[in-house]
C-alpha cells in the first residue's frame, strides 16, 4: 500500500459510518478516557509540570492525533517515555522553554511526514527499542521513589540517576509510612483487578480507592490539592509560546530529541495496532498528525504528545472501529475535567506514583530481553549498551549509539552471508554426427568435456562494502589463472560502489594478463553502476552464465 497523505478518518467516512460504529467507538473512547485520566496527570507530575498540563495534552493532542492520523486505532497523549526528556528540559529552560521545544518538535514531525520520512523510522533495530524502553522504565521508577516513600528532598530532585539515588538516600529520615501505604494499596488494587477483573478500569478504581482511604483516614500524605492547588475546570485560551532566537537555539536539541522519540514511539504503537487488527497504518500521515498534535498541545500549554501503546491497545480491545474513538476519548476527558475537576484535589501523589511504578514495570519487555540475550551475543550487547547509556548518560545518546552498534552488527552479518564459490565448467566440443548411413548428410552435435581455459565463479548475496574484502581476496587469487573468467551475479540483489570498485580492480588485473572477463546475470541498475566505473569496454555482459559459456565456445 502506498504511504498516502490522507488521514484514516477520511477513509473511514468514505467507506460509510453509521450508528452501530459510533456506539462501538463511543464505548471504546469512554474506556480509554477512564484509563488516560489518572495516567495523564501522573505523567505530567513526574515530568516536573502541573497535572493540568497532562490533561491538556491528552485532550488537545489526543483529539488531533486521531483526527489527522494515519492509523484507525492510534490514541495519543502524554507518554511515560518522555518523562526523562521533559523533566530535563524543564530543569534547563523552564516551562516556557518546554512549550517552545514541544512546538518546534511538532514542526519537525510535520515536515518529516510531508517529506515521507515515516518509512525510515522502522530501520531502528529492535534491540535498541527494547533497550531504551527498559532504560526509560528504570528512570521513571527512580523518579517516583520520593513519592512512593514520602521522602522530602531539600531543593529540586537531581536528574542524573546516581545523584538522584544519593539525594534520596540522604532524605531517608523523612520517610512517610502513610505514603508507602497509599502507594502499596494502589499497586495492590491494580494487580488484583488485572488478575480477577481484567475488563474493569483498574487504574481509575485504584486511584479512587486510594483517594477515599486517604480522605477518610486523614493520612498525612501530599495530594494534588496540597501540592498544586487542584486543576482548572477547562482548557486555557491558546497562545503561542514565547519566541526568541536565543531560546530557539537553546531548546532546538530538546525539540529534535522530542521529535525523534515521538516518531519512534508513535510508529511502534501504530505497528502494534496493525498486528492486533490486521490493518495497515500510513506512517508519514501519522507523523504529520503527531506534528499537528504537538503544535496544538503547545498552544494550549500542554507537553509532548505521542501515540501510546497501552492506550492504543486498550482502544483496540474495547472494540474501536475508527479514529472517532480516539477523538471521543479526548472529548470525554474534557467532560471529566469540566465536571469533576474539584475531586482531583483529593488524589494522593503516592497513588499516582504507584500507577507509574506499575507502568514502569510493564514497560520492561522481559520476554523480549531474554530472547535477545539467548539468541545472539551481538543483540545482547546492543540491548545492554543502549540500556546503560539511557539510564546513566542520555536517552538520545543511547538511541544513537545503539543504532550504530546495531548497524555494525547487521553489516557484519550481511558480510558473512555473502557466498562465492567456483562452478564446474563444461566445454562444448564440436563433433560430426551422420544423419544417415548412405545419404552423406551430416550435422554437428555438442560433446561435453572439461574446459581448462575457463573458470566460473558464482556470487550469492548482497555484494557490498561489508563483503568486499572477503570476496575481493578470492577473486584476486584466480583472476589471472585462466583465459576466460565468468562472474555469475544472478543471485546478487545489490552491488554498491565499493563492490563495483573491487570488480573494476579484478577486470584491470585480468586485462593485463590477457584474461577475458564475462559478467552474467546483472540487473540493469547494477550494470549501469559498473559501466559508470568505465568497465563497458573491458567486460562482456551476458544475461546468464550459460550464454557466456556458449559465447566462449563459439570463439
UniProtKB/TrEMBL annotation:
It is a multi-pass membrane protein. It comes from the Bacteria. Coiled coil: none annotated. It is found in: Membrane. Residues 444-552 form the STAS domain. CDD domains: STAS_SulP_like_sulfate_transporter. The chain crosses the membrane at residues 26-46, 58-86, 98-117, 124-146, 166-193, 200-219, 255-275, 287-310, 330-361, 382-411, 455-475. The keyword Chaperone does not apply. Keywords: Membrane, Transmembrane, Transmembrane helix. Pfam families: STAS, Sulfate_transp. The keyword Transmembrane helix applies. InterPro entries: SLC26A/SulP_dom, SLC26A/SulP_fam, STAS_dom, STAS_dom_sf. This is SulP family inorganic anion transporter. The lineage of its organism: Bacteria, Pseudomonadati, Pseudomonadota, Alphaproteobacteria, Hyphomicrobiales.
Amino acid at each position: 500500500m502506498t504511504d498516502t497523505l490522507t488521514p484514516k478518518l477520511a477513509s473511514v467516512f468514505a467507506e460509510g459510518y453509521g450508528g452501530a460504529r459510533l456506539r462501538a467507538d463511543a464505548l471504546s473512547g469512554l474506556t480509554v478516557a477512564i484509563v488516560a485520566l489518572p495516567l495523564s496527570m501522573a505523567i505530567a507530575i513526574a515530568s516536573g509540570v502541573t497535572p493540568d498540563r497532562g490533561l491538556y495534552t491528552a485532550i488537545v493532542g489526543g483529539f488531533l492525533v486521531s483526527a489527522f492520523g494515519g492509523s484507525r486505532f492510534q490514541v495519543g497523549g502524554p507518554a511515560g517515555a518522555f518523562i526523562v526528556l521533559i523533566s530535563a528540559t524543564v530543569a534547563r529552560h523552564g516551562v516556557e522553554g518546554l512549550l517552545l521545544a514541544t512546538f518546534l518538535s511538532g514542526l519537525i514531525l510535520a515536515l518529516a511526514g510531508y517529506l515521507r520520512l515515516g518509512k525510515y523510522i522502522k530501520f531502528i533495530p529492535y534491540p535498541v527499542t527494547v533497550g531504551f524502553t527498559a532504560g526509560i522504565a528504570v528512570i521513571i521508577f527512580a523518579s517516583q521513589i520520593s513519592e512512593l516513600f514520602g521522602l522530602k528532598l531539600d531543593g529540586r530532585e537531581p536528574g542524573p540517576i546516581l545523584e538522584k539515588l544519593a539525594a534520596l538516600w540522604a532524605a531517608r529520615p523523612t520517610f512517610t509510612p502513610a505514603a508507602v501505604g497509599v502507594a502499596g494499596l494502589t499497586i495492590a488494587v491494580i494487580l488484583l483487578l488485572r488478575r480477577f477483573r481484567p475488563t474493569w478500569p483498574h487504574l481509575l478504581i485504584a486511584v479512587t480507592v486510594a483517594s477515599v482511604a486517604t480522605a477518610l483516614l486523614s493520612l498525612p500524605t501530599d495530594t494534588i490539592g496540597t501540592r498544586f492547588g487542584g486543576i482548572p475546570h477547562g482548557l486555557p485560551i491558546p497562545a503561542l509560546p514565547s519566541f526568541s532566537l536565543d531560546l530557539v537555539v537553546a531548546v532546538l536539541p530538546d525539540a529534535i530529541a522530542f521529535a525523534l522519540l515521538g516518531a519512534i514511539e508513535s510508529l511502534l504503537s501504530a505497528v502494534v495496532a496493525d498486528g492486533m487488527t490486521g490493518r495497515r497504518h500510513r506512517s508519514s500521515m501519522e507523523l504529520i498528525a503527531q506534528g499537528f498534535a504537538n503544535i496544538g498541545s503547545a498552544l494550549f500549554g500542554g507537553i509532548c504528545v505521542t501515540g501510546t501503546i497501552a492506550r492504543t491497545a486498550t482502544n483496540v480491545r474495547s472494540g474501536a472501529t475508527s479514529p472517532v474513538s480516539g477523538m471521543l476519548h479526548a472529548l470525554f476527558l474534557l467532560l471529566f475535567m469540566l465536571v469533576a475537576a474539584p475531586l482531583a484535589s483529593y488524589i494522593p501523589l503516592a497513588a499516582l506514583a504507584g500507577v507509574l511504578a506499575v507502568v514502569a514495570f510493564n514497560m520492561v519487555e522481559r520476554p523480549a530481553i531474554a530472547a535477545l540475550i539467548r539468541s545472539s551475543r551481538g543483540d545482547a550487547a546492543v540491548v545492554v549498551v543502549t540500556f546503560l547509556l539511557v539510564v546513566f548518560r542520555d536517552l538520545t545518546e543511547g538511541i544513537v549509539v545503539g543504532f550504530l552498534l546495531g548497524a555494525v552488527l547487521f553489516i557484519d552479518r550481511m558480510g558473512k552471508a555473502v557466498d562465492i564459490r567456483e562452478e564446474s565448467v563444461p566445454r562444448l566440443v564440436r563433433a560430426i554426427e551422420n544423419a544417415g548411413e548412405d545419404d552423406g548428410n551430416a550435422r554437428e552435435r555438442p560433446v561435453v568435456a572439461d574446459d581448462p581455459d575457463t573458470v566460473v565463479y558464482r556470487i550469492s548475496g548482497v555484494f557490498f562494502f561489508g563483503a568486499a574484502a572477503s570476496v575481493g581476496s578470492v577473486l584476486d587469487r584466480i583472476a589471472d589463472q585462466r583465459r576466460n573468467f565468468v562472474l555469475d551475479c544472478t543471485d546478487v540483489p545489490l552491488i554498491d560502489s565499493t563492490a563495483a570498485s573491487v570488480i573494476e580492480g579484478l577486470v584491470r588485473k585480468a586485462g593485463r594478463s590477457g584474461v577475458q572477463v564475462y559478467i552474467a546475470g546483472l540487473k540493469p541498475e547494477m550494470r549501469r553502476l559498473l559501466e559508470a566505473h568505465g568497465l563497458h569496454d573491458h567486460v562482456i555482459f551476458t544475461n546468464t552464465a550459460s550464454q557466456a559459456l556458449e559465447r566462449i565456445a563459439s570463439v
